[in-house]
Amino acid sequence: MPEVPARPPAPGRTPFGSRLGAAMDEHGPLCVGVDPHPVLLDAWGLPRTAEGLRRFTLTVLEAAAGHAAALKPQVALYEPYGAAGFAVLEELFVQARSAGLLTVADAKRGDIGSTMEAYAAAWLGEESPLAADAVTLSPYLGFESLRPALDLAARTGRGTFVLALTSNPEGRSVQHVGGRESVAASVCAAAAAENARFPGTGGQPAARAGLGSCGLVVGATVGRALTELGIDLTAVRGPLLAPGYGAQGARAEELPAVFGAAGGQVLAASSRAILRRGPDAAALREAVRRSAGELAGALG
Ligand SMILES: O=c1ccn([C@@H]2O[C@H](COP(=O)(O)O)[C@@H](O)[C@H]2O)c(=O)[nH]1
């Protein structure tokens, strides 16, 4: 890793890792995915329009408030609505903050550094109406190509989740390449180095209180991959966003075996398994509570 001077968060702003750790301690390790698939809008009796998208989004937000640590809107499902879709995302970010929910924009951005600056400004910049608490990033143009986002997140007290071991089976064909020196292991090592640069994260135990702001995406479906690839996620000292719980088949009771000693760092994401319970607000809230309870039981 090249030497890059550490930049502390802006004065007065608590770093994302600390804010997420506190939210997980208070509400448990559930991140509710906001994935307004067209078929879900149909099932909810909502039109496939920006207004349908808005009603879906705000209903999920209300059901999650007080019962989950974070919301993760899937940006791809807002983009087909153009400017109106982005306006709904902007509203979500404002309302979530008022409701005490952290936000992770699942945008999976990654590009050459100069373009990355623009993506960083859009999703993490103080001036941007689309600024979330954290954004997902793709490291496949090289981890260091993400530098503008990593540095801007650190300056603004926001966070990043870098794809390491994704929940889809196809991910193995790239991420597992190299065996004990795998692509995934190099992403994990780079995230660990990133978190070690900031005082208050390096050298502490991998408890929620000591979480850094550079997180990873590690699917709940990866089975024994961490052991097979020799990856120790406690060394990353960052939060682990774990999609795959729920609709993709991973169960809460399997998570301790998947994540081992890093279980306390896991923020499990679930979208369709919860969203299928709508549009009834009480049923949706009950689905959120049930998932939150299962995960708290499994991961603490
Ligand atoms: O490895 C990854 C990275 C991101 N995702 C996203 O999470 C949700 C999962 O939705 P479910 O309905 O709970 O399956 C979705 O937005 C994916 O794009 C992922 O699944 N795996």
UniProtKB/TrEMBL annotation:
<keyword id="KW-0210">Decarboxylase</keyword>
<dbReference type="InterPro" id="IPR011060">
    <property type="entry name" value="RibuloseP-bd_barrel"/>
</dbReference>
<dbReference type="InterPro" id="IPR011995">
    <property type="entry name" value="OMPdecase_type-2"/>
</dbReference>
<comment type="pathway">
    <text>Pyrimidine metabolism; UMP biosynthesis via de novo pathway; UMP from orotate: step 2/2.</text>
</comment>
<dbReference type="InterPro" id="IPR018089">
    <property type="entry name" value="OMPdecase_AS"/>
</dbReference>
<dbReference type="Pfam" id="PF00215">
    <property type="entry name" value="OMPdecase"/>
</dbReference>
<keyword id="KW-0665">Pyrimidine biosynthesis</keyword>
<feature type="domain" description="Orotidine 5'-phosphate decarboxylase">
    <location>
        <begin position="29"/>
        <end position="287"/>
    </location>
</feature>
<protein>
    <recommendedName>
        <fullName>Orotidine 5'-phosphate decarboxylase</fullName>
        <ecNumber>4.1.1.23</ecNumber>
    </recommendedName>
</protein>
<dbReference type="InterPro" id="IPR001754">
    <property type="entry name" value="OMPdeCOase_dom"/>
</dbReference>
<comment type="similarity">
    <text>Belongs to the OMP decarboxylase family. Type 2 subfamily.</text>
</comment>
<dbReference type="InterPro" id="IPR013785">
    <property type="entry name" value="Aldolase_TIM"/>
</dbReference>
<keyword id="KW-0456">Lyase</keyword>
<feature type="active site" description="Proton donor">
    <location>
        <position position="108"/>
    </location>
</feature>
